[in-house]
Structure formats: C-alpha cells, structure tokens
Amino acid sequence: MLNRIYQWRPIRFRLKSQFLTPTFSLLFTKPSVSAANITSDDEPSDPVREILNKASTSKDLFGNHSVRTLIPTLNSLQVDQIIVNLGLEDPDSAIDFFYLLRNEYGFCGSRVSQFVIGHLLAGKRRLKELRTVLEQMLHEEGSGSAPSLSELLENRFRAWDSNDLVWDMLAFAYSRSEMVHDALFVLAKMKYFKIQASILTYNSLLYNLRHTHIMWDVYEEIKASGTPQSAQTNSIVIDGLCGQSLLQEAVAFLQENEGKESKALHCFIQYTYVKVLYNVLIHGLCIAGSMEEALELTDDMERHGVQPDVAGNIEEGFMLQEEMLSQGFQLNDIAYSVLLSSLCKRGQVGEALRLLHEMESTGLKPDVITYSILIHGLCKQGEVQEAIQLYNKMWLKRIFPNSFTHNAILLGLSEKGTLSEARMFFDSLTKSDLMENIVWFNIMIYRYAKVGKVREAVQLYEQIIEKGITPSTVTFNSLIYGFCKSRKLAEARTWLGMIKAHGLVPTDVTYTTLMNALCEAGNIRGMFEVFREMEARAVEPTNITYTVIIKGLCKQQRLQESLQLLEVMHAKGRSPDEITYNTLIHCFCKARDMRKAFQLHNEMLLHNLQPSPVTYNILLNGLCVNGDLNDADRFFSSLQDQNIRLTKVAYTTLIKAHCAKGDVCKADTLFRQMVEKGFEISITDYSAVINRLCKKNLTIKVKVFLHMMLSDGISLDQQICFVMLNAFRRVGDLTSEFELLAKMIKCGLLPD
DNA sequence: ATAGGGTTAG
Fold this sequence. Notes:
- The protein is mainly alpha-helical.
- The protein is built from 41 helices and two strands.
- The chain has a domain at 1-222: Alpha Horseshoe (Serine Threonine Protein Phosphatase 5, Tetratricopeptide repeat).
- It is 71% helix and 1% strand.
- InterPro entries: PPR_rpt, TPR-like_helical_dom_sf.
C-alpha cells in the first residue's frame, strides 16, 4: 500500500567526494556506495594489514604512534576494510576507531563503514548513537537517497544481527529529518522483507503527514501491521484532523477510538474551542465593520496554527460546541482560561465573568491564572472596583495573587483611581515580603511625573537605589518626562546622562520625550540637536519622533518641509498615524489654509486611517475661525448624517462660535442637542456660553442658560456670577442683578 | 497547555 502512495522519481546517483581536511593531504574520491564493494575476504592492503596487526597485539590501538602516522594515509576503501575487519573481531575497537576518525580527522566514513558501525551500535543497543550516525548519513546524502541506501542495506547487511533494528532506525531517521518520501520507501522495503516497524517510526511519520490525506494510509498500515499503538497515535490523528479543519471527522474518530478521559480528547477540545471562539469573534467583527481587527485576529489565529473557516461556518462551530456539550464533554480549566483571556482581550469582560461563574458551577477550580486574566481585563476596562472585589475573593479562597495580579491592580488604580489610592496599594506591596518589582516603581514614578510631582517621583527613584533594585530605562524615561512636564529641561538632560551612567541605553522614547519638550518650549534648534544625537547613536526614530519633528517644523511655519517629512515617513515605512495627520491639519488650519487641511483629511482616508473625533474638532474649529460659519454648520451636519462619532468638544466648538458671532438661537439649539445626546455638561460649558453672551450684553439669553444650568443641578461659581452681575448692571436689569445676588448669598458665594 | 506590565506625539 505504501508503495502505491509514493511513486519514485528517477534517482540520480549522486557522486560525492569525501574529504579529509586538507592538512592531511589526502582525498577520498570514491563514490560513497560503490566504495562498498569490499568484503572482509578481500586481500587487505599494506597499511590496513599493519593497523589490523597492531590492533590484535595492542590493547590501546590509538595511543600507538605508528597507527597515528598511518591514519592520514588511508583512503576510503582502506578505512572500510579496517572497520569491517575490526568489527568482526572486536566491535568496541571498531566503534572507537570510527569515532576517532570522525572526531579527530573530520572523516565520517563511507556508507559501508557507517552501516557497519550502525549495526554494531544496534547490537549493543546504543540506539541514540545509532540514530546520530544514520542522521548524519542522511544529512550528507539528502532526500531521494532511500533507494541507494536501501539497496546497500539489502545487499550487504541482510544477514547481519540487528539488521531489523537498523532498517527501522533508518526509516525513523528519514522521518525525523522530514524526508518523508524516503521514509515511506524504506517502510515499503521493510514490509517486503517482513520487518516490523516500531510505533515510534509510525508515529513520527504520522505526525509528518498529519495535514495530508496520506495520514490515513499510515494509520491503516499501523492497524494492519498489528503494531501496538501508543497513546500518542490517536492524538496525532486528532491533531491532524483539526489542522485540516475536519472537525466532524475528528468527532467521529474520537467516538470510535477514545474514552472520555483521553489525551486525544483534550487535544481536540482545546483546539475546537479556540477555533469556535476565534470564528465567532471574527464573524462579530466583520458584522461590526471592523475588518482590520478581524484580519488581525485571523493572522493571530494562523500564527497559532488554527485555520480560520471561510465566513459562514460559524453556525457549524456553534453546533459542534453544543453537540460536544450534549455528549457530556467537559471543558477543562485551561480551556476555560483560553476562552476567558480571548474574551478579555476583546473587552467582553462581562461575558468573561459569566464564564467564570459557569466554570465554578461545573465544579472546576479557577486558579491564580484565571483570576489574573479577569482582574487584568477588568482593570483595562476601567472597572477597578470590580477587579479589587475579585482580588479579595481570591484571597478568601486561598488563591494567592502573584506579580501578574499585582501589576494589573496597580496599573488599574493608577489609571482610573486617584493617585493616593494607587500609592496606598503600592506601599502595601512594597511593605510586604514580596520580591520588589521595578515595574511597580515605574508605574508610580510615571504617575507622579504626569501630574507634575517631580519631587515625589525622585523620592521613589532614591528608594529604588537605596533598596538595591536595578532601575530600567523606563524608570529614567518617566523621570525625564516629569522634568519636561515641569519645564526643567536642563535637569531632564542631566537624567539622560544618568541612563548612560547606569550602563543602560537611551531609547526612542527617551529622545522623543526630550525632543517634544524642546519643541514645546520653542527651541527647535535644540530639538534637532537631540535628534542628531539620536541618529548618531543609531536609535531608530519612530512615527512619534517624526510627528514631534513635524510639529516643530510647523511651529516655524516650515509647512512645505513638514509635508516632505510626511512623505519620508511613508517611504520609510514609519507610517504616519492619525495623530501625525491631526498635527499637520492643525498647522494648516492655523495657517488659514483650509483647502490643504481638508486635502490632508482625504489623504487619511486614502491611507485607510480613520480620522478620530479630534480630527473633526480641529477641522470644525478651523472652519469656525477661518471661514464662514455656514461651512462649519454644513460640515457638522454631514458628520452627524454619516453617524460619525463626535465628542462634546465638537458641539462646544460650534456653540461658542455661534455665541460669539451672534446667532444665539443656533447656539441654543445645539446646546440642547448636546444635552440630549447624554454628554455630561459641566460648569465650564455653561460658562463658555454665558461669558460670550455677557460680552454681547445678551442678558435675556443669559437668563435662559442660567436657568437651564440651575435646573441641571450645576452650582454656580464666583467667577461666572460676577460676569453676569456686571452684564445685568450694564443693561440696567436691576431685578436680575438682585435675584442673582440673593442666590449667591444662599450658596455662600457672597458674605451677607 | 492557560496570563502581562511601565515610558513618548494631537
């Protein structure tokens, strides 16, 4: 049967010269297999006889000086003669002689010598060495060599002890070397000679062929040959079927061949669940229109060796899942974790929590990993309180959090909670007996830096040094960021030096942070100096670095150069993102070039970049400031018509413009729209409108907005009250003035 | 077999 599978292409017998290293000035020029035409009966030539004589008289053949001097003069034929003769008398000497030639003279022996040694090793059950010798031979011969090697084995070694073992090992070695056709050929020969192949050889072949239909031929062959199967055999078949997306076949195979506790089943369940999950997610993303994410996920899937289904097989996936559940197949805890982690990555934490409960109700025990995945997911979604509840729950269950868990919580607290909350948790971590983690410090230092508390940041740095913890480049980057935020650029540069002093390397982030600060300070020359140092140190600029430079160029009105840099980015594959474009669009708006601004917006779409809400805010503001307000209105409406996501800023931008330019009715309408959309309205938003109305003495409208604001439950502040009082006074509206004064007294904004 | 983390640009 196996012969049928593989039709041999004509074999070209390859002449291979074998070389001793040139220092020994001897070439073996005989083709490898034809060199085999010797037997132990051939009359040995002189050096051969001499060495063999020495061997029979001396125990230590290779310590013998005259043997040593003879070796470099031997040719391939003579080596074969020695090994064959030694092998008959004293196998150990033959093996030692072979290793000596190989290790000290770089000579591997002819195929005959290798097979002789192979048989001797097989006889001594030194199977690993046997495999190595054969693998080396196959490595030298390459694929397609099975017929010639088989022929040699067949003609010259048929009667040798351990010949069966060598055949089997030859097939195994071919299979392991991924020369599958050769392995099949050897197997076919073995079958012809009625030599039983071992299950190891079969499994290896099965594994190599598991993604082809030939797998079944091998499988049938195993069954027919009566070779006892190993536990691995079925797992390989299942793995292969899953890899070929033949899930129904896999189920059928399991039902026929496996109990419910088997390894093959586990292999299957995990595979299927991951696959079903991926497909459901991809399907969902396609429907939601996030093709990019869907494609990303498909890549991810293929990287994990899972073939995605063509769209439409999702239903099948679900049915399969149900079928499996109805048959009493159970997910194990790890399969649940895989599922949970994928859901969390997609932001479907609620779904993940539901699964956690399902898991618990089926009697499975979530472990520290399960909990960490969930806690991390919750923190990423900003649901830190939920995460902390879960964290407490795992303590109650005596499942102890590890560094994964702690980092997630600290990061969540520092992002969503208050700084002092994060600090309390940080202190509790550093006070406990845990191994201290530089990442905890980095998180806190960055947070302090961000809010301008450089002193606290530096104190933490000093703690790091006192405790003997090694700071990372990120530590210094965050400190530099802090000094930049506090506009202490000279000190920021000092810390750049600290990186080097600690034997660390400044990164793109280091340089970009500094460059941005210099740019903000208007020191474009300084920015370019840092950029030159970055280049000199061969630190690759990122798209962020380029964006900063573009910002700098724009500041100096070097708009053409900034556009050129945009091209450079495209050319270098450092693709500009929406922030790059926003920066540029902002610059062109400022330069009152709305045409170019919109052209850049279109270019974004061409490059498949989704303009962000910020992009629209910039463009809207540009239209409000530079153009006709009607243009701004039209643009705004068209965005609304296309259901494009807008932020509150889009509304307030337009509202402010209408207030300032006098169309208060329009402003009023927009304001109500904004409220209806459910945006949270603050005193700043009301103040922005009221301020502008007061400036124009439109006190009637001021009273409308004041009323709206109070009924919205927003309390007054002193500043806006004085603005209104002045306006009421200017227009002579005494009643309103006194009413407002009374309100202020009530709120404690004025001493009565 | 199952998990991740800190820093830069509008």
